[in-house]
Design brief:
- Helices cover about 40% and strands about 25% of the residues.
- By secondary structure, the chain is α+β, with helices and mostly antiparallel strands.
- The strands form two sheets. It has a four-stranded antiparallel beta sheet, with helices on one face. Strands 1-2 form a two-stranded antiparallel ribbon.
- About 5% of the residues have low confidence.
- The chain contains three helices and six strands, in the order H-H-E-E-E-E-E-E-H.
Length: about 150
Amino acid sequence: RRPSTRSSKSSAAADKLWRRSSPVALALECAKTRENNSRRLRDTTLALHQAEGEYRSGFRSRLTSEGGPPRVEFDVGLQARVNGKPGRKWSVVIAYEPDDTYSFWLVEGHAGRKTDSMVLACVRDVYCDTVQAVIESTYDRAIAEHNGGVIPLG
């Protein structure tokens, strides 16, 4: 319902507010916003697909202890925690290397671990079509060797 006003100044302001808050006006405003957002998203997606070249790693992954505790340093890839020996922090690193291959690292990062013994497994020069099989077999071997073949569920 349209608000009532006493003065002409406040009447104009009330009319403006009422026009903006009417269900039809709100629906039109919402449709405009959706259209603008859709156009911005489409423009951004188009710009992403038109990028020149692709991102490549600048260096091969490596074990380092420069600037802090030992770790696997990589330029392009991912790192995630995995179930391992209870009380130990196992992580996997899948690094995309400059030569279009992958390296798979399985590392243990608990406080008492030394740099030279923190790498439980490292497989290099893995092609994209064998990444999953290499990761699964390497992890299974590490569980058998370091945890008696049992994968803890916690």
